[in-house]
Amino acid sequence: MSDMNNNIFERLEKANAYITQLENKVASLESQLKSANIECEKMRVVMKTAQKQVKRSAALSSSSEDQAPAKARAAIFCESAKNFDLNSIPSFPKSEQEHDFLLDSIKSSSFFSHTNSNQRAQLISAMQKKSFYPNDEIIKEGTVGTHLYILVQGSCAVSNKEQGHLAVIDRPKSVFGELALLYNCDRTASIRALSEVTVYQLERKYYQGIVQSVGAAQDEEKFNLLKTVPILSDLPEKNLRKICDCLEDDRFEPGDCIIRQGSRGDTFYIIKEGKVKITKNIAGTFEEKELSILEKGKFFGELALQTQDRRQANVYAVGSVKCYTLDRNAFTNLIGKLEEQKRSASPSSTSSGEEEKKVLYGLANAKLENARVLKSLGDGAFGQVKLIYFHQSDVEQKPYAIKCIQKCRVVQYGQQRHIQDEKRLLAKMDTPFILNLHRTFKDERYVYLLTDAYMGGDMFRLMHERGPFSDNVSRFYVACVVEAFAYLHQFSIVYRDLKPENLMLNDNGYIVLVDFGFAKQVPGGSKTYTFCGTPEYIAPEIIRNTGHNTAVDYWSLGILIYELLTRKTPFKASDDLKIYEKIQKGIHSVTMSYRINKKAESLIKNLCQKDPNERWGYQKGGVDDIRHSKWFSGFDWEGFKKTKNTSSANTAVP
Question: Could you confirm whether 497 is annotated as catalytic?
């Protein structure tokens, strides 16, 4: 009996050991299966991407580069963070290791390339850590995005309804969801956690508030410093604020010689941090005599802005020194020579045309109920544009366009001020190159803007029917836009939505600038921060959120020239984020189309300078720099402005 029990116990022990062995194998297999699932997910994405690339290559090879897009491009608008209180931004404590991790993430992302050290420190402070479990949805396709994310650990799958799996995000410091920081757009894909995931998230309102407020504070600091410089103090405020954008940050180590006596001077310095020592060479010796010590807020080398004379003293850094520096060439290109500024005591006329135009063609008597609709001309964001005439004997019998704006939609999207601005600005415009607003009407549901009807159609349609255009034809159309911008900018009005869709042809074949929904009056030297425009035409400073002015219109003019000549834009990409990344790299990274000659290329590159202060049109020469460019050589500007020229393209009236 005892032997039998021992035998049973031995068998049980062996069975338990075998079960334990099986359990360990199952656990090991489960772990391998989990890893295999992740690898399969990655492989599926790789295969999907490869298939897409093959299809894309086949599509490109089977179609010409001039294939027209399916539809007109939509503009984007996002109101800026006004009067933002930096004290209202939450601060989430982080260890030194966490701070360094996030700083490396920001520095490696092109999205944050424009930020300075102060802005980065505040952005990191506002980032909040968040964890997700497997299968949790971090981003949901179709929802309005509000946060950017930085991956700390874990794996995520990217997918959308149309294409399925797109990518796997598993590399620490990866940044995703960037577009949400620029404007309130719908997410174009979903991101799901494949494992336990840890991220840092940054909310849009904090990003915009920090970038704008810190940048504006630094601009104000520069402006106040410039006001203390005697040779600059008499300059108009708009010029001083322009100069602020030319100031560059420079750093010097202890003992560095910043200025050498006897050298040619071309740079002016303002001390931002630290001290400098001024010395003078003692004749006949190798010794120097100390003259003074200058501290924060003081300046030196100011004569370099006026002359090319040799430096009269030495300047050395005492300890580490940070300076704002101003180059003479940048200074004179932007506002001209100092003596010219002082001679022009009376400011140039910047009248905003407060007197409104007279209402012509008997339209003062026109009644809305007497309007008869001929056809619909198109749909806008807030209503329709219709072709009408008035069934009234005291109103001239000709067609007009009427823009019907739905009040409820305007209120729904909070665009009341922009509609009012559009009406106010158009009512003051009096040039053949800009949409002619006759008068307005309103009823319980709509606001109506009555304008001229331009029967030649829009440039977008014409370009894709008959383009790309030759240099002669493109010059004529671009000249119309140049004249429109020259008129707008004398009143400090920035347009911000140039594109072929917003250019209409009148009966004489001339271009007329329409749709003033994004136009805004920005005082000379000041900036505005609203993110708006059409992605392929947006200037880099709008993307960077560093403030912009009329210089953005000259960037878009360069893009327009490129598109008229090639029927495509230089920064075109599959999605908005890729477009913005290309724009940030600049026009010099673009391989120019064979259709663009050297003269056109030179003008495009001068208009599309990444630094707004270096753009033609915005510098001291104004639009004359464009008019006198080699691409416009031989163009009869005077005859053109008198509308004696005939458009080089025969436009058919529909």
Answer: yes
